[in-house]
Amino acid sequence: MSAFQWIRPVSRLAFAVGILSSASVVFQAVSGMESPFETRPSRAAETDEPAGSATVALAAYEGVINPVAAEYFAQVIADAAKDHAGALVIQLDTPGGLDTSMRIIIKEMSASEVPIIIYVSPVGARAASAGVFITLAAHIAAMAPGTNIGAAHPVTMGGGEMDKEMKKKVENDAAAYIKSLAEKRGRNVQWAEEAVRQSVSATETEALKLNIIDFVADDLTALLAAVDGKTVETVAGKQTLQTKSAALKKNPMTGRLKILNALSDPNIAYILMLLGIYGLIFELSNPGAILPGVVGGICIILAFYSFQTLPINYAGLLLILLAILLFIAEIKVTSYGLLTVGGVVSMVLGSLMLVKTDLPYMQISLWVILPTAVATAGFFALGVGMAWKAHKQKPVTGIEGFIGLSGIARTEINPRGQLLIQGELWEAVSSEPIREGESAEVTGIEGLKLHVKRAQKA
């Protein structure tokens, strides 16, 4: 096997492992998306729907507020209206997200004829940043014990500091918007403004005392009992909730939205981008492999979809591409590891810079960047080592492979004669007499004539 023939099978294996690893991450993200929101069946769910009682729709969302979240909220609100539900409970746990997606959600909630109850749960959940706006916009807002709400100060998606004028405009716009939401629902307008301007937060008990929310409920059953009989006003007019004995109808996120939501994760977007780049490189370096090219193209397209919701820094992207080029060059150029070191540094710096934002939940995890950089460097370092080892190996095929081999003189070689080597008779020439039957070592080749010398005795 030549110095670089090993690259095709090893690259295919490494690429397949990468694809399986990425698929595993997506599958875990998709299959486990609803796990924090699993609730024990309430008494309402265990009994048949009483005559004349309303149905309560139930949805749960955990994660960043993004276009997928906006689509999911719109879907469950539409389904609740279609089913003539008496109320829609949305269990929420979010660190915040995109302003545009948040405003779409609030528009859908404001236009809903079905009363919407935002329930920040389970224990440890939060409604931060965009989640504050959504909670205050609900017809009824509730929180579970051990949860918090607040820190709604707007942050630029491009990272860094905005100029004073722009910062003032954005802050004033967000403050006016949240004040209007709080005023419309009869909630604490002053605290809402402070949540935007000063990033204040509150626990569930503080939120209840400050009139930020309406109820604190230990679980879903307690929540439905607490809101029963409460009158709210929707676009369809005033409605009195009948939830205590209502039947629950869950509205889980569809498989399509689960996959799209998982793909919106910056870590998965990063892995997909690298797999796409590697796949295209392997296909171009090994034409006809097909699989790396096809899968690489798919990964690149999926990565572009993921990047549409992320503030991408093109300097970081260029550094990652430079790292790949340095790794490839290490195989072709003898740099004694300098190109590999440069590639590792370039990849780590580029990965850290790739998503330009101050929001921690939209940044690529260091625990994803470092293993990826090390694995990539290790792969190409292995390539360099194997190529160097193959380069140093003595040829074992072709005429050059005869040099150093020993044969038996079938005739006296003085200076010419015949040498039996590897079952073949060759014409041999020696500068010293070699008797018939003695061993001779090949020192050179000239056409079909071997230059030999008497073999050294062990």
Structural features, described:
With about 450 residues, the protein is α/β, with parallel strands linked by helices. The chain folds into four domains: about 10-35 and about 255-310, no CATH class; about 35-250, Alpha-Beta Complex (2-enoyl-CoA Hydratase, Chain A, domain 1), CATH 3.90.226; about 310-395, no CATH class; about 400-455, Nucleic acid-binding proteins (OB fold (Dihydrolipoamide Acetyltransferase, E2P), Beta Barrel), CATH 2.40.50. Helices cover about 50% and strands about 15% of the residues. It contains 15 helices and 16 strands. The strands form four sheets. It has a six-stranded parallel sheet, sandwiched between helices. Strands 12-13-14-16-15 form a five-stranded mixed barrel. Helix 4 (about 100-110) links the parallel strand 2 (about 85-95) and strand 3 (about 115-120). Helix 1 packs across helix 10 (about 255-265), helix 4 (about 100-110) runs parallel beside helix 5 and helix 6 packs antiparallel against helix 7 (about 190-195). The longest helix is centred in the C-terminal third of the chain and has 27 residues, at about 365-390. It is elongated, with a radius of gyration of 35 Å. The relative contact order is 0.10.
